[in-house]
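Radical SAM core domain-containing protein, Candidatus Aquitaenariimonas noxiae. C-alpha cells?
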Amino acid sequence: MLPEQTIMNSLIDIVVRGEGEESFLKIVTALKCGNSLNDIPNIWWKDNDKVYSTPTDGLINLDNLPPLPYQLLDFEKYIEIPQTNLPNCKRIIEVYTERGCCHRCGFCYNINMHQCKWRALAASKVVEQIECLVKNFVLDGINFNADNFFVDKKRVADICAGIIKRKIKISWQAGCRIDYFARYDNSFIDLLIKSGCRKLNFGLESGSQRILNLIQKDMNLDDVFKVNAKLKKWQIRVDYDIMAGFPEETKEEVLQTYKIMFRLHHEYPKATFFGPYIYTPYPGTPLYDKCLEMGFNPPERLEDWEILNGVGKHIYHS
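C-alpha cells:
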C-alpha cells in the first residue's frame, strides 16, 4: 500500500506493489542474468541509495496462472488444526480461488489493492483443484480463504454441483455477505449443504446502523437477524467478524455492538464471533482520509505500522 515508505527500510531492496507472481519471476530472472529492473512493472527498488520505480500494470488474470505445485511444499505444515472452524474434520487446508471484492467498505484494503474488482478461477478449475488436494493429501476439510467467495452465485452453484457430481467427500467453509445470504432461497442453501458447506463467515462489523452507513457496509441490521435465523434453521455454523474504534464511533455504539453479539448467540448458540478487532486505518481508503481529517498521524516508518495491527497496541480514533 505504501511502497515508497516500505522501500526506505534498510532491510528491503526491492518492493513489488500489488500481486507478485509475474513481477517476482521477472525480478528473479533479471537478477540471475544481471539484467536491469527498469522494464519490470509494479516495482520499487534501491540502487546506490537512490530509489527507482516503474509504472503499475493491470491485475492478473487468475486463469492464466499455472496450478500451484503443492508437491514442492512440506504439506503437513499447512494442515490446519480444526479447533472451531470445521470441528468434525481432522485435516483442513486453506485454498485461494479468487481475489478482491466488488464492494466499497470504507475500511477495507481492497479499495486500494484491487480497485474494488473481483476476479476468480473458473468453477471447473476450482473443483479440479479440490479433487486433487483431497486425493493427494487425504483432506476432509476446505477453507475457502477469500474476501468474498459468493460474489458470483452461479459460480458457487457450479462449484457445489461439481463437488457433488465427482463425489468429493469434504466439509467446507467460506465468507459471505449478510445482504447476499438474506436473499438466498432454500434450493440454493440446500445445494450448499449437500456439497459440504458446514460453516460461513460474515462481516457484521458493528451493531450500530449509523456506523454501518458510515463505513459504507451497504447492509441493514434487520437482515442480520433474518440471516442468523436462516443459519439456525439449516444448522450452518457461523462466525461474525466484529470491529470497533471507527472514527466518530461512540461508547454507546460499541455497547450496541456487544448487545447484538449477545442476542445473536442467544438466538443461535452456534453463532460465534471474531473480535471485536480494533479498526486499522489503511492508506487509500475513505475512512483513512477521514482519520487524517480528525488528526490521525500515520506512521512514518514501515516498522511503526506494527502498533496498528489487530493484536498489538492501538490508537482509538473515536
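The two ends are 24 Å apart (CA to CA).
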